[in-house]
Amino acid sequence: MNTAPSHYRGRFAPSPTGPLHFGSLVAAVGSYLQAHHQQGEWLVRMEDVDRPRCVAGADTDILHTLEACGLHWDGEVMYQSPRESIYNEVLTQLQALNACYPCGCSRSEIAAIAVQGSEGPIYPGTCREGLAAGKIARSIRVRLDDTCIRFHDLLQGEISQYLFREIGDFVIKRGDGLFAYQFAVVVDDAEQGISEIVRGSDLLGSTSRHIWLQQKLGYPTPRYLHLPVAVNNAGDKLSKQTHASAIEVADPRPVLIKALNFLGQQAPDELRDCQLDELWQWAIENWRVENIPAKQQIPTADE
Ligand code: GLU
To answer: Is 48 in the pocket of ligand 1 (CB under 6 A)?
Structure first.
């Protein structure tokens, strides 16, 4: 397996589907501190590949909130939406390897026969050996093999997944012609030379898919650290979908302290009264990965 580049480069990759809320702020803070504690770079990428889900103006709103929080990124912000021709080139490489195939199944056809996996129906392989007569290609799926993907998560420990049995041949280009997150994220992390990915544990179950694609495409595999995610009392992620409140930009110090404490960093109360750059100086110097709770979810009140 190729190894990650030695120079630390991390990233925060929000989807511009609404304002930054506490759940996404935790991922921003965790990835920022992990990068800066190691004198690394921290990039921001707008994951706007799923255009129907994007909200106009949410990208600039997120960027303003990051700036107001003192979370300054390195380099230019990468947007996914203009990168379709690059994704198509990479798709051609997978096609040349016979590592993907067109699929003509509708959701309801799949639902009618598929076994349910942890992340939805496991594709039953109907179109693997070619489209049946009269079927029209809708999406493109990878052609998995029955090997186990294993990786060491810096917080969650050893993770292994038999992708073929547990997830099934997954979609990389959707029926509406858009590339899937699972594919775009791998292409972009490789192109940006990301050495370590720090993000929420809601994506832990996607990581084996990313590693499978990296291996097929000959990309290095970055290190991974999946942070706990903030959930409400019903166990749902605090997100745009659960109408979590937007970050208070006039004075972000209380919510930043809340995020630091959520990540187990025991931020002193006096930080409430300091300048933002002093708050960050304290947080970067005192960042301890070993103090982050090794949980996938933590119930948190949304104020
Ligand atoms: N864009 C994804 C999200 O907002 C995060 C992707 C990632 O960090 O890999 O949930």
So the answer is: no
